[in-house]
Design a protein that fits this description.
Layout: E1 3-9, H1 25-40, H2 45-50, E2 54-64, E3 73-83, E4 87-96, E5 99-111, H3 122-125
Antiparallel strand pairs: 1-3, 2-5, 3-4, 4-5
């Protein structure tokens, strides 16, 4: 299975008044982790878009187990769970000091510039 890890330090601007990482920022972190996973395997979202392929979120699920705080150093592990001709599913695990604090999944659909479903490039479906 294709997977990778990145580290992100929680910035002050990403926290709420209680000093917790705001729940919406996990989606931003997931996107950053997906982007870096693609980059680690020799491609970028810009490459895809320049070829006429757009990956859009069709489904997202997040389970919060424990909060993250300002200045925490988080490790985000991203794994490709499944690909189909038009979709790709990722799993995310967010760790603080080795403890799982959040997990989630996304399903991205491959569309053309008009938003119609289209087949993903073969190289993306076959990435290992």
């Amino acid at each position: 299975m294709l997977s990778g890890e990145i580290q992100i330090r929680v910035r002050y601007a990403e926290t709420d008044r209680m000093g917790l990482l705001h729940h919406a920022n996990y989606l931003v972190y997931f996107e950053q982790a997906r982007t870096e996973l693609l980059r680690q395997h020799g491609a970028t979202y810009k490459d895809l878009e320049d070829q006429g392929y757009y990956l859009v979120i069709a489904k997202v699920e997040i389970k919060y187990k424990s909060p993250a705080y300002y200045d925490d150093l988080l490790t985000i592990r991203t794994t490709v769970l499944r690909t189909t001709p038009v979709r790709i599913e990722h799993r995310y695990e967010v760790f603080r000091e080795g403890v799982l604090i959040c997990e989630g999944t996304t399903t991205l659909a491959c569309v053309d510039k008009q938003g119609r479903l289209q087949a993903m490039p073969r190289w993306l479906m076959e990435a290992k």
